[in-house]
Amino acid sequence: MATQRYIVQNNLNIYRTVLDVVTGKATVVGGMVMDMLSDEEARELAGWLNWEHQQKSSRLELSVSS
Fold it and tell me: Could you give the CA distance from residue 59 to residue 31 in angstroms, rounded to a whole number?
């Protein structure tokens, strides 16, 4: 399995932040910082973002090798 670009970080409270490990900053989706999420929301979002990133990477690899 490839390294995940997006991870869930615990905050000092019950909330979570989805971090982009490339930038080291909180992920921004639709102009909104992905912070103060429930554990379930953060894990679902990180999973979706990692899946999307993997799909884009796979398409890029295919176009480069063609």
Answer: 25
